[in-house]
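tool=predict chain=A
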Amino acid sequence: MEVLNLKKHGLNACVKEAVKVVRGGGVVIYPTDTLYGLGADALSDKAVGKIYQIKGRDERKPIHTIVADMKMMEQYAEIPDMARMLAKEFLPGPLTLILGKKKGIKTGIAKRTKKIGFRIPDNPFCLALAKKFGKPITTTSANLSGHKAERTLSAILKQFGLRTKDVDLAIDAGVLPAHRNEQQPSTVVDLVGKEPIILREGAIPVDEIWNAIRVEM
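tool=predict ok
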């Protein structure tokens, strides 16, 4: 496994290497605006399978994806007005929108499901990676299923142990997260049904989500 330091090697070099790995079907540990994540081609059955194996995650549990912008999201999902409103209010940022997938999207994270979770992180590396790759990339916390999400790359690698052999590249951005939303994942909102459902409260408080939704309703 190769390790690149984001500050030392620079954004462009780190993104270039990460894109090379993802295009080759590999897995990257990378920083987001909340926690370190595990990244791979979100529409590749083989690559997504590696993510589940590394985490020891039940394959019936979904894995979400990052996209560069709303334009990319529109290629893969049906986006209702409420989703656009929440995106305008909170994205880029620590919000995951669960949306109905478009017809024909049926591989990788979209296999055996009618929904896909999308993120547009407020993080230069994530946005550059998704834009350069040109397709969705998996975003799931870099930890073993059921274990604590660590804040440093060294702690993550220690937790993964021998499973690090299945990781091709790690981008070290130091201690995460270094902001007010101390070590919280994204807030997840399901917008597929008739009524919005907040599946997880994270960095964005539930009351802020509901206040924004009430304005729309």
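The chain has a mean pLDDT of 94. The CA atoms of residues 87 and 164 lie 34 Å apart.
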